[in-house]
Design brief:
It is built from 14 helices and 22 strands. Helix content is about 35%, strand content about 20%. Helix 8 runs parallel beside helix 9 and helix 13 packs across helix 14. It folds into four domains: about 140 residues, 3-Layer(aba) Sandwich (Alpha-D-Glucose-1,6-Bisphosphate, Chain A, domain 3), CATH 3.40.120.10; about 100 residues, Alpha-D-Glucose-1,6-Bisphosphate, subunit A, domain 3 (Alpha-D-Glucose-1,6-Bisphosphate, Chain A, domain 3, 3-Layer(aba) Sandwich), CATH 3.40.120; about 110 residues, Alpha-D-Glucose-1,6-Bisphosphate, subunit A, domain 3 (Alpha-D-Glucose-1,6-Bisphosphate, Chain A, domain 3, 3-Layer(aba) Sandwich); about 80 residues, Alpha-D-phosphohexomutase, C-terminal domain (TATA-Binding Protein, 2-Layer Sandwich). Strands 1, 2, 3, 4, 5, 6 and 7 form a seven-stranded mixed beta sheet that branches. By secondary structure, it is α/β, with parallel strands linked by helices. Keywords: Isomerase, Magnesium, Metal-binding, Phosphoprotein.
Length: about 450
């Protein structure tokens, strides 16, 4: 029987509905194929709190052991805790999570030793081909002469200690921090990482529950931070933090309950990382982060480098340029000191250190990093992505004082505004992000572009 994994194996990970699209026997094949493709004699695995995660993770481990690899299971963990284990143990790793997707989904994020990503061009296509072939012929073709072992290891304390070694929080003023874990893995990691610091942590939805009974664990959607915003105001807290399902992304709310732009967080953390590295270094930012990011990086003595959207591009550029830090509009933050991997927890520690190291409020602190008016990301469903992009290009090409580039979709830049329109890889959508020096200008640009996109 022919097996088609095209809907399951994405650009950067494996993700689909359980058991409709994949199940434990398929996970076992993925474990065996992963070991073959990365050439591993030992690997590390971890999983989130979804009901299907322990079984899928153990099946993957069985497949890996069948090919002769020893498996270190770290059990319940955040995705960046798995990256920590991959880096600290110098082992390829596999994390079982579907991040913020609904409960019936699950997936695998895979990496080589040192948390180096495995995507379509770096091994995932080969893994898919092996799994499809084996599924057709009835399973793993040859069991290794010597079965690998499966052992358990606790890494949460070591992960927390490592993060806290990178940011000094010992002398900050006391802060009241509301944390919304969204019933995801932040409920597992936050108490250990923030425990013992001069922080009064007010927990929200720390109970691990992969059915997400309170709200979707995706803080980028404004609907999912409403509870946090309200609680910050009620508590008179200094800051609110929201983590996504696998706790690798962190979203920040100020003392007024207002969202802080991930671009402003990128600029703030970049300034701190540059100071830590002697005022020199490359900082990566994707092309839809604010103008304020490269400005702040240059003001602090660093070199900003602009990339396409997507963690594979950021991580590749981090490795190539030796960058000390990278940030995305989606609240993914990447650190050279963390094997170039993304960790929202480390970004949160930087924000807490910056806030607690001075007397002002968070809104006052981030004002210097939040300099422009932005549209936010606006999605439009279209029949013809290429045709609408061509119409935009035709409209703005040759317009005086305007430049165009096609690094990722179409970016149009003028003296006091810019916009980017990118096609979605998975849906018939065009995504618009615009920014300007003032609100009326960004609204005018937004409306003009949307008129062309939506016809």
């Amino acid at each position: 029987m022919a097996v088609d994994l095209s809907q399951l194996v994405k650009a950067y990970d494996v993700r689909g509905v359980v058991p409709d699209q994949w199940d434990e026997p398929l996970a076992e094949l993925f474990g065996a194929a992963f070991v073959d493709v990365v050439g591993a004699t030992a690997i590390v695995t971890g999983h989130d709190m979804r009901p299907s995660s322990p079984g899928l993770s153990r099946a993957f481990a069985r497949g890996a052991a069948a090919r002769g690899a020893d498996v270190v299971e770290i059990g319940l963990c955040s995705t960046d805790q798995l990256y920590y284990a991959s880096g600290a143990l110098d082992l390829p790793g596999a994390m079982f999570t579907a991040s913020h997707n609904p409960a019936q989904y699950n997936g695998i994020k895979m990496c080589r030793a040192g948390a180096a990503p495995v995507g379509q061009d770096t091994g995932l296509a080969e893994i898919r081909a092996l799994v499809e072939g084996w599924a057709e012929t009835g399973g793993i073709p040859e069991i290794a002469e010597k079965q690998g072992s499966i052992t358990q290891r606790e890494t949460l304390e070591d992960y927390a200690a490592y993060l806290r070694s990178l940011v000094d929080l010992t002398s900050i003023r006391p802060l009241k921090v509301v944390v919304d874990a969204g019933n995801g893995m932040g409920g597992h990691t936050v108490p250990t990482v923030l425990g013992g610091l001069p922080l009064e942590v007010v927990p929200m939805y720390f109970e691990l529950d992969g059915t997400f009974p309170n709200h979707e664990a995706n803080p980028l959607d404004p609907a999912n931070i409403v509870d946090l915003q309200k609680r910050v105001r009620e508590e008179g807290a200094d800051i609110g933090l929201a983590f996504d399902g696998d706790a690798d992304r962190c979203f920040v709310v100020d003392e007024r309950g207002e969202p802080v732009s991930p671009s402003a967080i990128t600029a703030l953390v970049a300034s701190r990382e540059l100071a830590k590295h002697g005022g020199e270094g490359v900082v990566i930012h994707n092309l839809i982060t604010s103008w304020s990011v490269p400005e702040v990086v240059e003001e602090c003595g660093g070199t900003p480098v602009r990339t396409r959207v997507g963690h594979s591009f950021i991580k590749a550029e981090m490795a190539k340029s030796g960058a000390i830090f990278g940030g995305e509009h989606s609240a993914h933050y990447y650190f050279r000191d963390f094997w170039n991997a993304d960790t929202g927890m480390l970004a949160a520690l930087h924000v807490l250190a910056a806030l607690g190291g001075q007397q002002g409020t968070l809104s006052e602190l981030v004002a210097q990093y939040d300099r422009y008016a932005a549209s936010g990301e606006i999605n439009s469903t279209v029949d013809d992505q290429a045709g609408r992009l061509a119409a935009l290009k035709e409209t703005y090409q040759g317009r005086e004082g305007v430049t165009l580039d096609e690094l990722d979709g179409l970016t149009v830049t003028a003296a006091d505004w810019w916009f980017n329109v990118r096609p979605s890889n998975t849906e018939p959508l065009l995504r618009l992000n615009a920014e300007a020096r003032d609100e009326p200008t960004v609204n005018r640009v937004r409306d003009e572009v949307l008129t062309i996109i939506r016809g």
